[in-house]
Amino acid sequence: MDYKKLNEKELKEKLTKIEYDVTQNAHTEMPFSSIYDNFYEEGIYVDITSGEPLFSSKDKFNAGCGWPSFSNPIDENNIKTKDDFSHGLNRTEVKSNIGNAHLGHVFEDGPLTLGGLRYCINGASLKFIKKEDLAKEGYEQYLELFEI
């Protein structure tokens, strides 16, 4: 698939206010407010602004923090990180690579059995694609994630 960043007008037309504020202005949604916080269907999560595949339900876990949490991305090339010193904190921001959308932050307090990382991601930055819809939506190469 071809992933591209939408222009400002397209983003404002496509996204809700919270989706826009999170992805474009690095806001944070309220904890426990995302439909994806306590959501465990099989599928993948993509950048709501560009469609880039970001995380798999196979790597999702309940961190109890109020935001969807993942142990690692589907493909490291689809995300980028940068130091974030906002709010008097020292954190690592996670953004989508092509869409440049703010996704959340990554912390080193995840389960050691899953690699030790916790990608704490705003649900407002994500779109979920069900496993059974992957081929129809153009993400058929990710079906292999769910084969055992």
UniProtKB/TrEMBL annotation:
Enzyme nomenclature, EC number: 1.8.4.12
Every MsrB domain range: 8-131
InterPro entries referenced in this protein's UniProt entry, alphabetically: Met_Sox_Rdtase_MsrB, Met_Sox_Rdtase_MsrB_dom, Mss4-like_sf
Catalytic reactions of this protein: L-methionyl-[protein] + [thioredoxin]-disulfide + H2O = L-methionyl-(R)-S-oxide-[protein] + [thioredoxin]-dithiol
PROSITE patterns hit by this protein: MSRB (PS51790)
Keywords for the protein's UniProt record, in alphabetical order: Oxidoreductase
One Pfam family of this chain: SelR
EC class (word): oxidoreductase
Highest taxon of source: Bacteria
Designated name of the protein: peptide-methionine (R)-S-oxide reductase
Organism: Peptoniphilus stercorisuis
